Amino acid sequence: KAVEAAIVEEEGNVFQMFDGGSLPMDLKLDMARAYIHVDDSANARVLLGEVMDSGSEIQRRKASRLLAEAA
Predict the structure, then answer these.
(1) How does pLDDT run along the chain (71 residues), one tens digit per residue?
(2) Distance from the CA of 64 to the CA of which of 17, 30, 35, 47 falls in 20 to 30 A?
(3) What is the 8-class DSSP label of residue 64?
(4) Nearest-10 Cα torsion for 45, 50, 56, 57
(5) What is the pLDDT of residue 64?
């Protein structure tokens, strides 16, 4: 059990190191792209608005470009 707990903890640490909290915003960008692809601009704009509010600078730039596509 202790070994399993240590492995899970280590996986969590590695995930945090690479994620840095940006994964949810990246997923929202991907979902927005999918919505744009199926001509659902309204849902794309909702997600992109969330990225504009809470994403990193790079994510906000990507969201801005996608918002132009969704217009």
Answers:
(1) 555 544 445 444 444 444 455 679 999 999 999 999 999 999 999 999 999 999 999 999 999 999 999 88
(2) 17
(3) H
(4) 40
(5) 97
Residue 67 near residue 43, CB atoms below 8 Å? no
CA distance 69 to 63: 10
**What spatial distance separates the first Cα and last Cα of the chain, rounded to whole Å?**
53
Q: Are 49 and 25 in contact (CB under 8 A)?
A: no
Angle subtended at Cα 26 by Cα 51 and Cα 40, rounded to the nearest 5 degrees: 65
CA angle 64, 68, 71 (to 5 degrees): 130
Counting beta carbons within 10 angstroms of the beta carbon of residue 13, is it exposed (0 to 12), middle (13 to 18) or buried (19 or more)?
A: exposed
